[in-house]
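Reading group handout, session on sequence-to-structure problems. Before we discuss, look at one worked example. The prompt was deliberately terse, the way you'd type it at a terminal:

> structure Extended synaptotagmin-2

The input record follows.
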Amino acid sequence: CVCVCVCVCDCQESLSHVCVFLSQVHFPDTERAEWLNKTVKHMWPFICQFIEKLFRETIEPAVRGANAHLSTFSFTKVDVGQQPLRVNGVKVYTENVDKRQIILDLQISFVGNCEIDLEIKRYFCRAGVKSIQIHGTMRVILEPLIGDMPLVGALSIFFLRKPLLEINWTGLTNLLDIPGLNGLSDTIILDIISNYLVLPNRITVPLVSEVQIAQLRFPIPKGVLRIHFIEAQDLQGKDTYLKGLVKGKSDPYGIIRVGNQIFQSKIIKENLNPKWNEVYEALVYEHPGQELEIELFDEDPDKDDFLGSLMIDLIEVEKERLLDEWFTLDEVPKGKLHLKLEWLTLKSDAANLDKVLADIRADKDQANDGLSSALLILYLDSARNLPSGKKINSNPNPLVQMSVGHKAQESKIRYKTSEPVWEENFTFFIHNPKRQDLEVEVKDEQHQCSLGSLRIPLSQLLMSDNMTINQRFQLSNSGPNSTLKMKIALWVLHLEKQERPPDYQHSAQVKRPSVSKEGRKIPVKSQKSVSPSTGGSNTAPSTPVMGVDDKPVREEKPHPPEASPLGQRDLGRSSSSLLASPSHISAKEPTPSIASDISLPIATQELRQRLRQLENGTTLGQSPLGQIQLTIRHSSQRNKLIVVVHSCRNLIAFSEDGSDPYVRMYLLPDKRRSGRRKTHVSKKTLNPVFDQSFDFSVSLPEVQRRTLDVAVKNSGGFLSKDKGLLGKVLVAMASEELAKGWTQWYDLTEDGTRPQVIT
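And the output record:
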């Protein structure tokens, strides 16, 4: 029925029609709630008043404080429209839940012709939103249940996975021309919005004053899922030769999702029985209704082919604790996947730590990377009496950088204050807490100087009550009374092995995917935009992405589905795809595997951190990964494209000595080894000079249909951990000036998104 509905609908509205159609379908584990829809309809005018108040009193000040260029930001009109939100079904969980909580899943749909206008007076910029669509499953938790009125201590609301979101903008092109926002796109904005709606982010409404709001807003994870992504067998061969006459093999890789955490495996070239042997670890906050989702793809130069999918209910994994099985892939005629899944519980004492360290072999090795023995949860509260920084009697713009080993995270910026309040939560996977330290530095974002630092050996937590420290810490190299208030807790990750009879057999419950293959989001390498009206698909850790991984088999890898922004499009009248992704990680590199010996932790962390700063508009410069200078022209006499690589500037550093950069080029879509061009390696510099010339044999009409793929990479030496991507740029050759040529500086980005065209 759904397929018939899609076929007869207009392409641009088919997704909306499908969502409306599905709202009429009765699922056995959900209940209709027409009484609730009638109630929402009656309350809608008052809900709209609350939304307008939220926009003006909460969102508007937050946007103004997020970036100096947005200090004159304001909403001139907020009208959500007359069409109320609709609840298509309600599911109440009665099993596997705490007795002091009530868990509801609401299947919601909102299709509103709203009118939200905004203005940035400083730049005479006006933009707005004409319509919003949102479809997804919203979880509502009532907890704790108490013996006094109102019987419920607090209400928490969030999405288990990103909702389908579509926003029809007006004047977005003008908005994205503003300094500090020019690194964004409409898809990245949607990703940021979606991420704020998905766990671990949540909206918490206290109903009684005794409830600890911080604990509800940032709860302890229910567990950690360790995913051994081992191998596959009997996959489909998707590659073809001689225009499809000869069947070949595939270049398989996997996308693994748990909530908004997204991992990508390495690519195995030309193999229908690939062996990955990679390990990832993911936090699980809400296991009722949450699944492990896996999709396999065949890597191709343009659009990656689908090889199968799998969804596993995490309740089953928690019950079994350990699953080591072959799973049959869905939505494809053949293929199976070998996984080993471990459910790790969190223990607040160190009694089992030595056994855990021995099990993961962390008691003997000296590395700081590998399987995790513990989880560090850090609640960053506030700071007091921070120094003024470089300028006397001026308030700094403080932010906090935290790191454990190679893993680094960063707080939001608080502007013009020496008494910042952050109230943010961070988590770190810990390999061996007996040897590792938590390093914290407070910095002034405006002047790029340190305001104080702190080093805490994690071994201190092992001797503390419940392995928790909650206090104000005196900052070193700071003012005499400068302090930072934090709560840090260490939890040991323990695998509780179940006692089973010898003949016990179990197969984890595999759920069927809710998205058909025709509607699937396929990773697309081409940077040409795909209009939603054409039925085209777009791509996706992440998320925040977690873990550390093997050395890539290829130099560029496809984006995870649901994790990459679309290419450029007409942003002035953009209508973003309903399948917009929640995570805006855009590097075509695999997620590092924590079981690897030749990993790339620094490169992926550095690039993703810089990209995150760009998306939040907090990077001072407009080229956070640096720039590269190229001369490009086509010689009609030689019938060749000539590319001169001059130099790079302001590259990121892989070590204290800088980087060892070189430049690699392809003329897409040709990514064969014979089509690759490379410069020499320039040692220990962030501003290398190459001045090397390269050519590609191609005619002028042909080259104008091609794209030059330029990547700046760090060499690092044989088997070095510091190999990796420093930045990329994609230059479309569709220019009338190609015969004359040009010399230009190009901004490097994490994957070359936003192809740069010369006109």
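Points for discussion. First: Residues 138 and 159 are 5 Å apart (CA to CA). Second: The chain has eleven helices and 36 strands.
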